[in-house]
Amino acid sequence: MQQTTTSKSASLSAHKPKSQLAWIGQIFLAVLAFGALYMVGSNAFQNPTLFVQIVLSGLQLGFVYALIALGYTMVYGIVKLINFAHGDVFMSGAFVSFFAVTRFQMHTWPSRVFIGINPTLSTMIGSLTVILLSMIVCVLMAVTIERVAYKPLRDAPRIAALITAIGVSFFLEFFGALYFVFSPRFIPYERPFDVIAWYISNGIHTIVPGQHPPSNSITFSNIFLYIILASLLVQVFLQFVVRRTKIGIAMRAAAFDKPTARLMGINVDQTISFTFAIGAAFAGLGGVLYAIAYSSIWTQMGILPGLKAFVAAVLGGIGSLPGALVGALIMGQAEALTMGYISTPMRDAVAFSILIIVLLVRPTGIFGEPEKEKA
Amino acid sequence: MEIGFLFISILKIAAIVAWIYGLLWALGHSKWWVKVIGIVVAFGVIQLALSLNFGGFQILTDFDSGLLFQAAGMAMVSLGLNLIYGFNGQFSLGQYGFYGIGAYTAADITYRWVTGDPSGLLVVGFGCILAGLSIWGIQKFISRARGIPVLSSFTLYLIGVIAAGALAVGISGLLSPGLAPLLKTSTGPGALATGIPLQVVFFLSVILAGAFAAIVSFLFGLPVLTLGSDYFGIATLGFTIVVNTLMVNSDTILPFPEMKGGRGMIGIPKLTTWFWAFAFILLVIVIMRNVVRSSTGRSIMSVREDETAAKAMGIDIAGTKLLAFVIGSFFAGIGGAVYAHFIGFLSPGTFNFLVGFNPLIIVVFGGLGSMTGTIAASFGWIFFLEGLLRVLLGQMGTDAPTWRFVLYPITLLLLMLVRPQGLLGTVEWGFLKSKIYPPRQKVQAETDTSSVAEVEAGG
């Protein structure tokens, strides 16, 4: 409270009031930072390959979070709503691809239609079709959710929209958990393409299935590369959309001031729908990649990644696209390092503690702009 | 059969709402003997319905009494959340975390007590007293400094509370061996582990559970309440998740083997009778009403309405927010303790953050900033959910619990779309109504116009 109020008064009275005893907090932060650095550093020094392996797994997690966080950051930036259903859109993306692959064999359609096609090309086209299908279904779902549940409440108090968001989220999770829909169990996920893993030990070698890589080697897989590639491409694409296109300008205008944007002839409702749609598309992409990478899906798989992605978006500064990426990478690393060096259950605690500490030091997140004064 | 059951369920909900109305009316009456008779009658009616048995027919069956106690606990939790969110405007999702902390703390105290180990009560008791003293002292110290950053004050409080805890563990180590023989003898439970002393320990454990939850909420709320409204919500949701994780790992990460981690804590003495549940819910309602209808309550509400204006009126915004948060968590801790000693079994699944949305839904259902609405909604909500489950079980079999969670979001959506301000809005009944002060006599004002002008200029 002190901080936000002082920042408000700071703009009024050019100088900040002097704060006493600030050194106690600084020492506390320094001790925390030193402890974390010492723990990571000593472990990294003992076993460097394990450290690199953990960092790589953190990167994989972080780039998936980045894909989800984009949707959160854009939607929150415009309508100031924590879209709890976003994590479930992510889940639906994974499930759509599961049905496309397992039930309808959609990843093999090129080789069935064009007989004699190159199998690599066939897999590539087939997988892209599956991913595109998931993205389209997610877009339709998000737009429907927005129309049914959020749009009628645009002028109601914000809590009403939040409660409906929670309601939609519960509905998707538990409707999916019914036995005639998906069932509440973990379902093994059949991948549209084979995962090839490599290990680095005197050069890069392919891991033959059924054979263990030698100890002290760093392994990574093609899905790891695809996730990074997809996440970076999406980031560049969104930067382009938001900065250079008409709809992007409309989005920024609506995020800044909705009534004025309306006066300038911008269709704000359409812009908001578009924001939901584009966020959902990339959440769907993230869902498919996540399912391929971790190869098991269930109806509540979206809750925690969704929350972590929102935390990542807040960490990076809400409304900022590169902020979402940076925040997601920090979340991924924090989670992977905690899992590797402290204990698996503590990963959520560490993730949320980082959020609180960062927000205390920088109330608008790493890349966030200072809050504009309300008229 | 299901239709009949549904009808009886609705009848029971209506009866309980009427009971609440009657209780609040009697409490709000100006004559003291009406209040006393009202409380006794309100207690007696439910007690008779629970205990009378006309040849196999009971008005409130075991199933219903389970719902009743659960709803009583839920009403305390939701009233706390209503103070935090409805009256103070801080969007919190962490109420279930404090509920869980209260439940586990109280359960651990009494479980240890009946198994012949007084250290639970001693550590938590001395810890809470010492931590309270140290917080008070540090506050005195901090109030002399100007513009101290939150992080610094948090560090000081953290050190103070940890020191108090360590001291409490030391004191308990000295006192425990002396008390232990009184709790357990070779033949059975000792003098202090049965009868009246056990009831006193139960009462203390409930209050201490609330106090412990309040101290945790103080330490957590101090830095987190400085975040913005939505960020505060996410941080408190994270708190619920972390508390739940700690419960699942209470025997590995935390040093409490008797909590048995994810398998659930068993063997908690079932000490919550209707007398205690009624007493605690009455206590919570009275405290809540007196807080809200005091100058503190008015400053709490003014922070919700407009922070800048409240600050201009000289209200300590950070302190007010923290006060509301701590009182709300205190209620949640009490509710958890009552629930734990009724159910006799605690599992981390009960305090899952998905269930943790329940208090929020109850508060919004009943109407933000309406105490009556919260109490009525928490009773109605529990009976509705369980009634729905019972009806669905006949139709759906094993899918029923899932179907319940499919149908209730739909109810929620419809309610939000049709009536976003909640069922009761800001209506209050009887005791909870704010006092209506009669308008001032205008006789003086007419004769002396200059004073009116002054008042108007001042206002």
Uncertain segments of chain A of ≥5 residues (pLDDT<50)? 1-14
Rough outline of chain A:
globular
Biggest beta sheet attributes of chain B: none
Pattern of helices and strands of chain B: HHHHHHHHHHHHHHHHH
Distance between the termini of chain A: 20 Å
What descriptors fit this protein?
heterodimer, A: 375 residues, mainly alpha, 3-stranded antiparallel β-sheet, two-stranded antiparallel ribbon, 14 helices, 5 strands, disordered N terminus, B: 459 residues, ABC transporter involved in vitamin B12 uptake, BtuC, 17 helices, globular
Please tell me about this protein's structure.
Chain A has 375 residues and is mainly α. Chain A has a domain at 72-300. Chain A has helices spanning 2-12, 22-46, 48-79, 86-102, 109-113, 119-150, 158-176, 222-244, 246-256, 258-263, 268-294, 303-316, 321-341, 347-361, and strands at residues 187-188, 197-200, 204-206, 218-221, 296-297. Chain A has a 3-stranded antiparallel β-sheet with strand order 3-2-4. Chain A has a two-stranded antiparallel ribbon with strand order 1-5. In chain A, helix 6 (119-150) packs across helix 11 and helix 12 packs across helix 13. Chain B has 459 residues and is mainly alpha-helical. Chain B has a single domain (2-53, 64-116, 184-446), classed as ABC transporter involved in vitamin B12 uptake, BtuC (Orthogonal Bundle), CATH 1.10.3470. Chain B contains 17 helices and no strands. In chain B, helix 4 packs across helix 12 and helix 13 packs across helix 14. Mean pLDDT of chain B is 85; it is low at 450-459.
